[in-house]
Every structure is written in C-alpha cells, then in structure tokens.
Amino acid sequence: MNISIVVTQEEHYKYSQEICETIESSALLRGTGIAKRTPAYIQKKMENNDAVIALIDDKFAGFCYIESWQHGKFVAHSGLIVHPDYRNLGLAKKIKSFVFDYSLKKYPDAKVFGITTGLAVMKINSDLGYKPVPFSELTTDPSFWAGCKTCTNFEILKSKDNKMCLCTGMLYDPKEKPKDPPKHPFNVRIWNRLKEIKQTLFLKK
C-alpha cells in the first residue's frame, strides 16, 4: 500500500467535494457536532498551501487543513478526517503529526490550538505535546467562533459566551517547551468521564 502525505497542490482540488462529504458523514455517524465547510472553502485552503492530503494509490485517504487567527498569533488544525476505507491504519496520527510539523515551520511564532469532542484526536494532540486549557487561553478572534455556527452544539457555546462547550480546548505553545511526549500520559477513562459530565451538565433538559 503506497501512502503519501503531502501539502496540497492544484492537482488535489478535485478531491474537495469528497473531503467535505467524508467529514460530514463521519460526524453524522458519530453523532458529534462539527462546523461544516464547503468544497470552495476547502479548495481555498489548498490554494493557500494551508492543507495536507493523504493519498493511497492516488485515492483520497485523509485530510487536514490549517487556519490562522489574530495575524498568525494562533493556528488551528481543522477538518482532520480519514476515509472509512483506510481507517485503523494509524493514518490520522500520521496526518496530524505531518500538519503539526508543517504549521510550526510556516507559522513559527504561533500557538497551536484545537477544540474537539473526539477522544482519538485528544490523544493524538496530547502525544504531540498539547495540554488541555480553558477557552480563555484560545484565540479571541470572533471569526473563529463564528465558524462553530453550523455545529449542533452551537447554542451551548453561545449560552456560555464562548467560554465553554462540549468540546475540550487544547493548546501547544512552542515557546513553553520543545515538542516532546507529555509528562502525564493521556488517560481515556478520565477523559470519557469528563465528557460524560459535560454532556450531563449541558444537555440536561
């Protein structure tokens, strides 16, 4: 199996529609909230060299893109997805690690952050050196939070003045320490419990 992970070029624009459909169908299957993106938006990221794609024998296998906020003070990795045909191969971690290293080179002074409800993504982030933080440590750029409007949990975020939601905020500050394994390994049981507590608090009728 020939796996290649590369920064997107013009030849990859043709995958934009399939990428959007894969992201949306995956979110529906998991029952999680997700900010929807259009093929035009995905292609724009590709044009700006702010996206990476994984291909297996020239077939779309995975994707992730970079967003920058507050004049490059913060960057986030969004839309991380692996095609259903190529899951359980460790591809998500490979894509995330690739886009992480790439964004550190392209935006060397930026803090890297993300918000997610996915435990798999949390573990990958933790392995890369991210730490969980309150939303107050993330970007204050309103356009970032506006991107959550299509998420099914947006009303929760709105009711909490963008300070809390079902997502967990995670941050990597390159000025704090070099990229290395975290001192406290990711514990799935603990994060599952925290996720359940959030759901109980925010989704109770």
UniProtKB/TrEMBL annotation:
SUPFAM superfamilies for the chain: Acyl-CoA N-acyltransferases (Nat)
N-acetyltransferase domain segment(s): 5-151
Gene3D superfamilies tied to this protein: 3.40.630.30
GO terms for MF: acyltransferase activity, transferring groups other than amino-acyl groups
InterPro entries in the record: Acyl_CoA_acyltransferase, GNAT_dom
Protein's recorded name: GNAT family N-acetyltransferase
